[in-house]
Design a protein that fits this description.
By secondary structure, the protein is an alpha+beta fold. The chain is built from 26 helices and 17 strands. The longest helix is centred in the C-terminal third of the chain and has 23 residues, at 510-532.
Length: 610
């Protein structure tokens, strides 16, 4: 059965043997998982050896698009990068925007699966049906922008490039993948996986057409949707500030992480916020087919251009006590060039600053001192001195620094992103139940929480959290397109259902999409259970700091999370998901979602409740 919207082909690349196979995958995969994250989770489940070392040749890198990826519709230039995470040892993924998404699909592929390890540092060049693994030791040590520039000189401007920097080469466990000098993805350590495979970059070229069921209707919808977006009420302000306005919002609502998530307010927030950025902005960047570009370009303290958004400014600014936006921009640019995640880096630096303050390490750092932060960042990406330990993330570092475990700010090993949750129990649960570890991408419930029931532990919050996970982490990550027009501008979900029907010829209801999302989330949880050899609800808890150390300033001074009430919400979440009290999917749930072979394997590892 042929279906439009998907090319129907995956590319399998063995770096060890330097061989590639173009393979037609089962049509059932399209119906059950749609694409992107769904494809990645299923491929890793089916083909990854249980218990594989994430930094061994046995791990696999999946690059996956969805049926909307690369089509001429708003914000479609996105792909998912996935692997077993070297940071969490569970399922890890991240989406990235750029031309690589477009050219992968035009080249004829819905996904690329990379296995093995190249003998020497190499690049993977995918030119339509021509695939080549090239040894490229000359690229070793180059920054991500230098690597992309070099490859564009060789192959022309019309290519998509995914590359790693020195952090990936040195197997920093939160190394990521960079494209187009600031598009970043894979904060779960996908850059380290590429580094472990001696894969410096992937180059995509593609000239074919993506099959579409009703292209005329898709063109009509695209034209209408682009016009609709620019008329939305928040569009003009979004174009001015993008996500940077969230600095002021987070400060006002006391959720801006400060001093390693001790507090939710920062005395210099105004100096690093959206309006400060506006005064120094020199340009904007964005992904293909996007008319709401979010990348704000400023000149950093060295005079170089740097791309800013909320997360990197919150984590490399407020969270480490740095209130100079140009210096924050310099740290951001360093991270992008080195190919290391800005969120985890800011979290790790905050952890190290606190460890120094408490005299738990010999190194002396001071909050808010740019030179200390930059030196530490350089030591991390090059694995020098204490940077070697910190390159493994705060979970591993805290296990080796006695007395630091309660303020190592992570969930499942992934460092928490830019929202303090002392006074935001719904967002704490979102971090606790995110399928990749502590990340806001799957459920930014904090905005709803601030408007509706700030301090409550309620049925409504659990229901809203699951709804947001289904939409953000299910629909958008499988289709695979950017969620920001919907999140930030109010671009309605109905557009994506219509895009999907025009592309594939299939009409799915919102409930149909939600069922696919539930299948993906349940499969990912099963993957975690498989790799961990069981499960404990404590793995779904946020750090002890938020329970034990109330904030000392701001409008929610003296507030901390209530552990008993958090536990109640977590178990209600399990119940709504159809999982057991220990957080393991029930047999009946997996069977209902069509995961029969998966439940048989899990049943050999742990006891599965009916």
């Amino acid at each position: 059965m042929d279906m439009n919207g998907w090319t129907g082909y995956m590319l399998k690349v063995d770096l060890t043997r330097r061989k590639a196979i173009i393979d037609k995958y089962d049509d059932l995969l399209k119906i059950m998982f749609i694409g992107g994250r769904g494809f990645a989770a299923k491929v890793l489940w089916d083909h990854l050896p249980v218990g594989v070392d994430p930094l061994s040749s046995g791990n696999k890198l999946v690059i996956a698009g969805g049926p909307l990826t690369g089509l001429p519709i708003p914000s479609s230039g996105k792909i998912v990068l996935a692997s077993k995470s070297p940071l969490t040892y569970g399922y890890g993924d991240g989406s990235i925007g750029g031309l690589a998404a477009v050219y992968m699909r035009r080249g004829g592929y819905d996904m690329v699966v990379v296995e093995g390890r190249a003998e020497k540092l190499s690049i993977l060049v995918i030119d339509n049906s021509k695939v080549e693994v090239q040894i490229r030791e000359d690229l070793r040590g180059l920054s991500t922008s230098e690597t992309e520039s070099e490859l564009k000189e060789e192959y022309g401007r019309s290519i998509g490039v995914l590359s790693i920097g020195v952090a990936g080469e040195n197997l920093v466990r939160y190394a990521n993948v960079i494209s187009q000098s600031g598009r970043a993805g894979g904060r779960t350590g996908i850059g380290a996986v590429m580094g472990s495979k001696n894969l410096k970059a992937v180059v995509f070229m593609g000239e074919g057409d993506i099959p579409v069921a009703n292209f005329k209707n898709l063109e009509k919808l695209a034209c209408e949707s682009y016009h609709t977006i620019v008329k939305l009420s928040n569009y003009s302000f979004w174009i001015r500030q993008g996500t940077m306005s969230t600095i002021e919002w987070s400060q006002e609502n006391a959720v801006l992480p400060c001093m390693n998530f001790r507090e939710g307010v920062f005395e210099y927030a105004e100096d690093i916020g959206g309006y400060a950025m506006e005064g120094m902005r020199v340009g904007r960047r964005g992904c293909p087919y996007c008319n709401a570009k979010c990348g704000n370009i400023v000149e950093d303290s060295y005079g170089f251009q740097s791309e800013l958004d909320y997360e990197n400014v919150a984590m490399l600014g407020a969270n480490i006590g740095l209130g100079d936006l140009r210096k924050v921009a310099a740290l951001t640019r360093f991270a992008d060039e080195a190919g290391v995640d800005t969120i985890s880096l800011g979290n790790v630096i905050g952890f190290a600053f606190e460890a120094s303050e408490k005299r738990l390490i010999d190194e002396q750092y001071e909050w808010g001192v740019f030179d200390d932060a930059l030196t530490l960042a350089e030591d991390i990406v090059n694995r020098r001195g204490v940077g070697d330990l910190l390159a493994d993330g705060v979970r591993i570092a805290s296990s080796k620094i006695p007395g630091s475990e309660e303020w190592a700010m992570h969930v499942k090993g992934l460092e928490i992103s830019g929202y303090d949750c002392h006074s935001a129990p719904g967002m704490a649960l979102a971090y606790g139940t995110s399928p990749i570890g502590a990340h806001h991408k799957d459920a930014w419930i904090i905005s709803w929480e601030v408007k509706n029931d700030r301090l409550g532990y309620t049925n409504a919050k659990v229901s809203k959290l699951i709804e947001l996970q289904r939409i953000r982490g299910g629909i958008f990550e499988s289709l695979t397109v950017c969620r920001l027009p919907w999140v930030e501008l109010g671009f309605e979900l109905r557009w994506y259902k219509d895009f999907f029907e025009s592309a594939t010829g299939l009409r799915l209801s919102l409930d149909d999409f939600f069922e696919v999302a539930d299948r993906i989330y349940t499969l990912i949880r099963a993957f975690w259970v498989r790799e961990m050899g069981g499960w404990s609800p404590m793995l779904d808890y946020p750090p002890a700091r938020w329970f034990k150390e109330p904030t000392t300033r701001g409008p929610f001074k003296g507030i901390a999370l209530d552990e008993d009430r958090y536990r109640w919400m977590l178990h209600l979440y399990y119940e709504r998901r159809g999982w057991s009290d220990t957080g393991i999917p029930r047999r009946s749930t997996m069977m209902r979602l069509g995961l029969s072979s998966e439940v048989d394997l899990i049943g050999k590892i742990v006891k599965i409740e009916d």
